[in-house]
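Hello forum,

I keep getting stuck at the same step: I have a sequence, I want structure tokens, and every attempt I make locally crashes halfway through. Rather than fight my setup again tonight, could one of you with a working pipeline run this one for me? It's a single chain of 372 residues.
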Amino acid sequence: MNGKRRTRQFHAWSFAAATVPAVMTCAGIAWPWVLAGCAAAAVFYFLLGLLRRRTGMSLTESYTTAFGNFIGRLLLGLTAVWTLLALARTASGAAAAFPEGDGAGMAPAVLMALTAWVCIRGENAPARCAAVLAPLLAGLYLILLAAALPDVKTEWCGLWGENRGILEAGSAMLLPTAALFLREGEDGKGKRAWWLLGVMAAGPAAMALAASGRLSPQVVQAEKLPFYMLTKSLSILSVMERFEPVLSVALLIGMFCMAALLAECAAKLGCAARGNGRRNWHGAAVCTAAFGLSFWIDRVPEAIWSAGAALFWGIIEILAQVVVGIKKEEKRGKKELTNGDEDGNIAERSREGSTADASPERKTSKNEEKSS
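Reply #2:
Ran it on my machine without issues. Output:
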């Protein structure tokens, strides 16, 4: 596959997957906290891109190089387990896309079946699907925001809630790290997706602003999915419209892209931890395991999800790249010192050789003077 086309597909895949936490998590938090958390996530990806360009290593390679073979593989395995749990949570939350539908209970099974089917067709198949679906998602959410933002009330747009919303929003938007694990063999020197960083910072904040500005902070805090409640009050030209199906379709599409991303990432990390090559059926096996875990995954507290995402999709990656950069600098310094010593020895030997070559000439000149 062409490198530029693959990069664009992964950017679209990351965007499509990130729309799910933007709607389901960020829309229920005050927009200043969301903006701060998403801006921190964007800065994280900017710094991670700089480090990857400097080290020239992918995330998977940096684990074993920074922490050694055993610890590196152990961390890869733990990250794979965490990604599997995140996939199970995605399957469990699939029913939220149809909060008033009678068949919402079948949504997790349908989502995992679709994800397993596309994973069997290879890693490139879900990337191509996401590249097609991402513009559709962007259009749907632009329609919803265009209908909601003009009627927000300024008195409801202030700061409310606790500042832990920064951690919740920032950790939720670390999901695209899973896409970086799939870009094996790339050194991070491709074209940067500035538009993706901008959308990651501003998009969730706009959704949070629309939700609290239209519903009031009290209603947002009371609702499980406030953005869905928002769609019930939207109107175009003073005519009430039924936007709930639009949001349901957008959520289901985003969850499909998110589930495929997590399934492929978990399979790739699991194979890297064991030192085996990836097979197409591995993604389907991960989906099956995630579906089994989805029945009890809701018992995990929200604080665990925020801390786990910050650790496995943020801190370890930055730390690995920093350690690799330090090791490379030390190796480069030792190499320069060794080369300097070798150059000094060569210069010293050359001076000794020139002195030895000059001494017979001096002896000959002295003999000639004596003979004359």
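The first strand starts at residue 235 and ends at 236. If your local run keeps crashing, start a new thread with the error log.
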